[in-house]
Amino acid sequence: VTGPPGLPGLPGVDPADRLLAAIRELGDGPEPAPTDRLAAFLAERHARRSPPPVAVAEPPLAAPCVVSRRQRVRRRASLVSGALLFTQATLGAKLALAAGLTATGVAAAGLVGGIAPAPHAPPERPAPTASRGVPAVASATATATARPARPTTSTSAAATASPSPETPASSEAGSPSGTATSETAAPPSVLAEPTGVAPKRGREKAARRIAHEKAHGRPGETAEYRRERGSHPGGRVRAPGAESRTGKDRDPRPGAESPGDKDRDPKPGAESPGDKDRDSKPGGESPGGKGRAPRADPKPRDGG
Amino acid sequence: VTARHPDVALDALVLDARAGSGAAFTDLWRRLSPVVAGYVRGRGVRDAEDVTSEVFLAAFRGLAGFDGDGAAFRRWLFTIAHHRAVDAVRRQSRVAGDVPLEAGAELLDRRGRTAHSAETEALGRMAGETALRLVHGLPADQRDVLLLRVVADLSVEEVAGVLERSADAVRQLHRRALVRLRELAADVGTLTDGLPAGGHR
Questions:
Q1: Surface-to-core class of residue B127, CB atoms within 10 Å of its CB (0-12 exposed, 13-18 middle, 19+ buried)
Q2: CB atoms within 10 A of CB B91
Q3: Each residue of B79-98: pLDDT tens digit?
Q4: Do the Cβ atoms of A30 and B126 come within 8 Å?
Q5: Global pTM?
Q6: What is the rounded distance in angstroms from the CA atom of residue A100 to the CA atom of residue A94?
Q7: Is A48 in the B-facing interface, judged by CB distances under 8 Å?
Q8: Residues of chain B contacting residue A37, judged by C-beta atoms under 8 Å apart
Q9: Which region holds residue A275: left if phi is over 0, alpha if psi is between -120 and 50, else beta?
């Protein structure tokens, strides 16, 4: 077979194969001339800074354990703190058993809560305001914070960091700052000092002190001051002659006139000057409810 | 059909081009543009160079969203070339009405420039023009399969992907194209009788 004319090839080769070889050579021509657009594109690409060639990612030989220095420090600190907590809990439980404290006392002392007693802390610390529902530690700290505002002069013992058990009332003596205690008190987790010892005796003493104050008044208080303060021992201090904002500390006796109630109409239902801004509607914001958001009635009550 | 182009270096070229290397773009053009131009020419496109440039321009601009190796890039490039060639043939058929033989003449011109002797040049021109005439004598689908299999050196599956047909359909078309090519090769004497031997530019 010599093949068809016009298709050069070797003799003995299938003409169809030679034809296929000729077709294949269609793609073996020279490089065509690029158009202007393509030439501009290639020139632009060449003008750019050529990045380094992309390296083929090789699988790692072994799983690397790369730990930074910060991670190592964190891990070490975590281990140390965990060991300390365990030791504190164990020691706290042993101490509690040895001291015969109850579970409540141990919990209040912070022995099992991870709060270790400070080495300089006194063995006992009274909780003067525990009966008001304020946490003992927080109230003690907050009381210490509010001490400089006391007007009385009998706070020399109370100004110390560790009040003696003999004068528990002196820390509150002349202190009308029950409200100030709750206002200036920060959360216990922030300001609470690790006092550590269960204030069981302090509670009893505080209860006795409160009972004594109710019966005889606080030490150093004058009768006039008690009258100004009204029935609330922790009421807000007002200057003599100041208006009552809430009207609660008015003398309950009918006809009695307090220095701040000079303008008050004794008739029931009369509006006092201090009650002008009181919202009498249900849901209205009262001056005492500062933290409460005003309730907005979503649906108008048209009665229909 | 065996692979004529080992794609060992083509993978690296595609990776470098994806990374923005201008030299890689140029190398890709130099390496693949003759094959694409041959396929476009075999499809009957007159201005095969312009269409080839458009094909590469589209491929280079879309290379950032391309993910694959050198073989995948070849398949993707010929997919673009196929669509561009179809569009170009439609445009020129609306203008002239028939597929001319200027593409073959252009190929013969370029082949003649690289020929080393007058005899080789003449033989090459004759072979190229004859091959083009025979290919143009095939039905369009058989021609596409034949060109993609022979010129572009794609596998049956790759051709099926480019033409959006099944692999069995591509095999059937390829077989029919070879049978038809044998029949045309038997009559090639009558086809080449009217052409001047080596005098056509």
A1: buried
A2: 13
A3: 999 999 999 999 887 776 54
A4: no
A5: 0.44
A6: 10
A7: yes
A8: 53, 57
A9: alpha
